Amino acid sequence: MKKFMNTAETMVAESVEGFVRAHEEFVAFGVDRKCIRRRHLVPGKVAIISGGGAGHEPMHIGFVGRGMLDAACVGHIFTSPTPSQIISAIEETDTGAGCLLVVKNYDGDVMNFEMAAEMAAGRHSVEMVLTCDDVETVRASDGRGRRGVAGTLITERLLGAAAERGAPLAELKAIGDSLSPRIRSMGVALTGVAVPHTQRTTFALGSNEIEMGVGIHGEPGHSREPFASADTIVRYLSEAIVNDISQATDKALLFVNGLGGTPPAELYLAYNTAHRILAEHGLHIERSLVGTYATSLDMQGLSVTLAFLNDEEFSLWDSPIATAALRWGC
Amino acid sequence: MKKFMNTAETMVAESVEGFVRAHEEFVAFGVDRKCIRRRHLVPGKVAIISGGGAGHEPMHIGFVGRGMLDAACVGHIFTSPTPSQIISAIEETDTGAGCLLVVKNYDGDVMNFEMAAEMAAGRHSVEMVLTCDDVETVRASDGRGRRGVAGTLITERLLGAAAERGAPLAELKAIGDSLSPRIRSMGVALTGVAVPHTQRTTFALGSNEIEMGVGIHGEPGHSREPFASADTIVRYLSEAIVNDISQATDKALLFVNGLGGTPPAELYLAYNTAHRILAEHGLHIERSLVGTYATSLDMQGLSVTLAFLNDEEFSLWDSPIATAALRWGC
Asked: Which residue of A has its CA nearest to B303?
């Protein structure tokens, strides 16, 4: 396992420090480095806060800035940030209009964000939106619901844009909840990943195997398949999404996300394939995003996300954004 | 070798098609798909044209758009585009003020771009700037000069910005030539890469080896070293650059580039290390760029680039840009 790191104990802190240094125009460390916050807050705007384990960069720190998040809390690798970190982010970014917490649906994250919300409740108006875009349904059947994966980016972007336009907390909570059934993702891995601290690989793949339905924490997926052409793999992912998604209209945002070790050229090829397959299903791709945004350390793999949005939501997507990972219109 | 592809023969064409589809707001195919061109040309502006082999994406196609390139020509993997492609790009983008070709210093690229320039000379004013930022000096000693690698991005950006401000062809040629001794890069590989068409790996690394001084075409570097900490590796690269660069002032742009298979978190950690080491050498990092911009297929590795710029050049760097890979101010 060769990585650019010094020690497993310091790698997250060193990487996040590099991030903040490289993007000083957008972000700053919060008090005691408990969160990464937007450098210039907008008084009276609802604060949008997210976070999760490290190992998914640029998610979520790369989304802090105008038009998206006001703060992100980073835990250890694949481990939720602590309630103390989240409370600190709430205290630093609530300028009076309250806070919306956007949380990927994992037990640890949900527990810690809920605890923070309860502890802050006396002093701050706090609401929470869970993202649960992963088509993979094993968890869904045991009552814990779907996992939040790359599609979380879309929820955070749309909520960030709506907050920037002045939407109040209750409206943002409603937008977030309404997006949930309209965003679906599915991932595939060509390689497993090992967490540096433990050196454990949760699944290992042979030279001719791939893992279908993976999450972003090195969890195994739902089936081991033989390696196949991009057409075959991307068709599997795309059609699983199309067959799963509810409230589908015919206008969508297509997001092809790299899981860390997949180069842009392969992501664009996969995007091209997905675009063609979705056209066969009568879908119009109104907006596109292709790149490495929600990673699982250095995993070779990708995920496909489809979000069925309305015109108002496409307009929110297009509005000015200035973050490290997404930037346009300003 | 697992990649997202269908056939080795079609992978470049499929990937580029995906790219154009995903970024229709900026780019379009030229006639017969010989080049990728800026969708909206600016009449009277000097056209900036680049290109090279495929396998380096987003370089150069991701740099086509306002404030950078007017066209990019893509060859086969690690193979120069043909003179016919380059002539086509010249014909499509010259709106009367001439064309500047920005060419990475590799024999095949130089030969084909020179041939195209000669063949177009009767009908178009054409100048050429060679980029040669690689510290690796084996080639330099045999008279062919340094290779052009990731630092090419900086030259293309500054020339694109200057062209957008109305600089005439002769001035752009002078700016490009003046940048050459002030931009230096050096790369390291944790893994080799194999070209899909030939299945050949130019060098293979053991689980405890790294290759220092690699280019972006899978060329071996100048020394095989034992795997080491990020501090050790990045110090080696950074100090090689600092010791090599001529005309050094104390204000620089620091660019940490992923070679395709390295995730953002590791790049930010390497950036943090480079920033600290360069500060020890009295350098002020005025601008930063961290990400995967000039790749060598899916190689795990990175390069460090340092560009010593003046205030006017920093201002060019900051000016509005709207391309797939770099976007700010508009």
From this structure: A4
pTM: 0.97
- If asked whether residues A26 and A110 sit together in one domain, one would say yes
Beta strand extents in A24-63 (DSSP E only): 27-29, 36-38, 47-54
pLDDT recorded at residue A200: 75
Q: What is the CATH number of the domain that holds A282?
A: 3.30.1180.20
Q: Is B261 on the interface with A (CB under 8 A)?
A: yes
Mean pLDDT confidence for B255-283 = 97
Say yes or no: B206 and B167 in one domain.
no
Identity of the residue in B2, B23, B289 whose CB atom sits nearest the CB atom of A190:
B2
Q: Which two tokens stand for residue A211?
A: 């893992």
Q: Cite the active site residues of B.
A: 56, 217
Tokens of B46: 């000097």
The predicted structure's pLDDT at residue A247: 64
Which CATH number goes with the domain that contains B134? Answer: 3.40.50.10440
Please check whether residue A226 touches B, CB under 8 A.
no
Sign, Cα dihedral of B66, B275, A199, A139 = negative
DSSP, collapsed to helix, strand or coil, labels residue A280 as: helix
- pLDDT for the residue numbered B220: 87
* A165, part of any domain: yes
Hey, is A141 helix, strand or coil? helix
| Residue B231, token pair as written in the block | 């501090």
Q: Give the model confidence (pLDDT) of B98-118 as tens digits.
A: 999 999 999 999 999 999 999
* Residues B171 and B193 reside in one and the same domain: no
Low-confidence ranges of chain A (pLDDT < 50): none
